[in-house]
Amino acid sequence: MAAPAPRSAAIQIVRPNASAPAFKPAAQPQQPQPQSQSQVASPVTKTRTDNTQRLCRNVLIYGTCKYQDQGCPFYHPPPGVDPTLLESGTQNPTPLQAPLAATQVPPAQDAPRSAGLGVAAPVFVPKTPNPVADVPSQPSTPSVHPGHLWPQASDTGLPGSTDGSAMGYDEGMLGNHQGMESNMYMQQPSRHTLDYHLYTSPLPHVSNPPISTAPLHSFFIPDDLRRVLQARQDAIQALPSGPTGLPAELGVYHTLVPLGHPVSAPSRVWGHPSPVYRATSGVDGNVYALRRIEGFKLVNEQAFGAIDTWRRLRHPNIVGLREAFTTKAFNDNSLVLVYDYHPDSTTLLDEHLAPDPPPRIHNHPRQGMPIPERVLWSYITQIANAIKAIHASGMAVRGLDMSKVLLTGKNRVRLNGCGIMDVLAYDANTPIAMFQQEDLVSFGKLIMHLTCEFFQPGQHPSGPLDHITRHYSPDVKNIVLFLISKPQPSKSIDDAIRLSGMRMLNELDAMQMYVDVLEGELGGEIENGRLVRLLIKLGFINERAEFELDPRWSDTGDRYILKLFRDFVFHSIGVDGNPVLDLSHVLTCLNKLDAGLDERIMLVSRDDQSCLVVSYREIKSCIEVAYGELRNAGNPMRGLR
Ligand SMILES: Nc1ncnc2c1ncn2[C@@H]1O[C@H](COP(=O)(O)OP(=O)(O)OP(=O)(O)O)[C@@H](O)[C@H]1O
After folding, report:
1. Most buried residue among 174, 181, 583, 639 by CB atoms closer than 10 A?
2. Are 247 and 328 in contact (CB under 8 A)?
């Protein structure tokens, strides 16, 4: 076999054994392909792997293949058959199912897992072909490639990235779900849990172990932060175990999932049962919290007037209101208010006082009572900040209660359910200033509630104030006394903020320190993302079955160097013959590659007969060239370049 001809002139070829055969890649033993669970389970999928003949890429890309009559070894569909509806890995190509007709199968214990992005590799099993339903009768159906279910840029006619240095991307995945049929969301496959072992397994050995092993963990996001963020993702995806009895669609919203307590009792604030549902918008694909007020009939359209003002109010301590509407979809008269969804959140009541709070995904212990003064001031500061913003925009909270303060992160609170009272108890005659004064009194009661478990609405404040005097600083008592004092025009939230004094600065410090920490973590993750992009590029190139009608494309020229480099990075074997799983080696190599260092490494062929001495800079340019070839494959102008 002819030796592959590396293009880079600077590369030296060293033959340690003169009598060795010409330089060539090691023969690849024909490994039996591991079968995924779907392949075992589905006879349809099994036939795909038997004796397959590949659909010609030229037909897929250009619609025709000029080599068809000159012995092109690939499958060419008969005229009139849309090649994009055929599966390219089968001898008797069958039209593929539309993506949403696929069923997702949970992976078996030993099924191949995804390689590091933290998500289990989905295994899709197409339905048994239905000769009636599956004929290519829907010209608008996006073409589907075997192995994945997303349309490619070449299929959609979308140009790839014009920036030579950037990765191309599939614009079909950019999250603009407008125009998608809403019923496609209904067919949500059951969700796989994340590959948590990718994070929690012990880290591999590092070549030069530091004195402390703690720096090993600095490769990744800290465990506690990761768990919180993953719990939020899980909360967004979690599906109820059984039927919910809820409508499949509610306007543009679908996939309604109840949140909070399963039993819907009248709300302690609004008097009506007011369940909350998580729902997905068919317009923007985002997830929202839908608050339904059961049994409410709107009699005065003007009651919706305040909703517009609430919609415009955006504040970090207020749950944003998006829209409100009435509906009969629940077989009653219901008012629905759509709020921003804060996954895996709870209320101050459930976090500190409720005896039986609904479970959360992130299984951290409840804070309970008593609330430390530092945390108490954090709550006071944030709630005062929210009230100030609301009063400044000419509104009132009207219904400040522990159950309506949402805890969305560590000591991070937001006022929830804003605007509901303005519709439920529409009152154009009472001046807003009166409602604002009521807010201040409610705020004072809320602080008493947070400091004394035994406080009951209507109770004389002397008992709770005594308790506060004994357990908290005088400043807490002073602010409570101010807030619950008799309403008067001069009393405002500004005075309460003034009373908090320097405590506000503590909050500012804490926030800024937290931002610093998060920015540090973000910087680390950017580096990880950079390496993943590099690996994706390598993955596109390495072991590609055929390209440009050359079945050995990935084994020749520059690509051969990349193959050996991949072996060098990932497939090293130690002196004991065991695989070397050294994360720091991998990270070091990839970072040097990305930086394009002049440092040279020796790549050894698989048969140990030849080796290449090559610099990272040269390997990097090999990647650019090979990747550029792939990117230009779908570009009809490439011949003119
Ligand atoms: N905007 C939101 N985003 C995410 N989750 C929310 C949101 N609003 C409410 N929830 C969830 O719904 C749960 C119930 O909220 P709700 O305001 O109904 O509290 P509650 O204690 O049941 O009060 P009520 O007595 O008024 O029914 C909360 O614990 C929270 O988990």
Report:
1. 583
2. no
Task: State yes or no: pLDDT of 99 exceeds 60.
Answer: no
CATH of the domain at 430: 1.10.510.10
| Domain match, 445 and 466 both | yes
Task: Provide the pLDDT for residue 517.
Answer: 93
Non-local CB neighbours of 177 within 8 Å, separated by 6+ positions: 282, 283, 284, 285
More confidently predicted of 175 and 324: 324
Burial category of 31 from C-beta neighbours within 10 Å (exposed 0-12, middle 13-18, buried 19 and up): exposed
User: Relative to the CA of 265, which ligand 1 atom is closest?
Assistant: 27
Do residues 509 and 481 share a domain? yes
Ligand 1 proximity of 348 Cβ (cutoff 6 Å): no
Q: Which of 180-184, 297-301, 412-416, 549-553 is predicted with the least confidence, judged by mean pLDDT?
A: 180-184
In a domain, 193, yes or no: no
Question: What's the 420 CA to ligand 1 centre distance in angstroms?
Answer: 13
Are residues 260 and 117 part of one domain? Answer: no
ipTM of the complex: 0.98
- In tens, the pLDDT along 52-61 reads 456 665 666 5
Residue 347, annotated as binding a ligand: yes
594 touches 619 (CB < 8 A): no
Mutate to test the pocket of ligand 1, among 259, 278, 366 (most ligand atoms within 8 A of CB): 259
Cα three-residue angle 388-323-336, rounded to 5 degrees: 105
Q: Is residue 256 in some structural domain?
A: yes
- Mean pLDDT value across residues 546-559: 77
How big is the chain by its Cα radius of gyration, in Å? 32
Q: Is 4 inside a domain boundary?
A: no
Is 81 a residue whose pLDDT tops 50? Answer: yes
Give dist(CA 529, CA 536) in Å, integer: 10
- Establish whether residue 408 lines the binding site of ligand 1, counting it when its CB lies within 6 angstroms of any ligand atom: no
Of the listed ranges 40-54, 297-311, 348-362, the one predicted with least confidence: 40-54
Residues 48 and 104 in one domain: yes
pLDDT above 70 covers a percentage of the chain that reads 65
Residue 197 falls inside a structural domain: no
The backbone torsions φ and ψ at residue 158, rounded to the nearest 5 degrees and listed phi first, read: -80, 140
334 and 472 in a single domain? The answer is: yes
Q: What is the pLDDT of residue 52?
A: 42
Number of structural domains in the chain: 3
Same domain, 490 and 574: no
Q: Which domain holds residue 442?
A: 227-522
Residues 609 and 513 in one domain: no
pLDDT at res. 207:
61
Same domain, 633 and 494: no
With residue 632 as reference, give the H or E element that holds it. helix 616-632
**Does any ligand 1 atom lie closer than 6 A to the CB of residue 267?**
yes
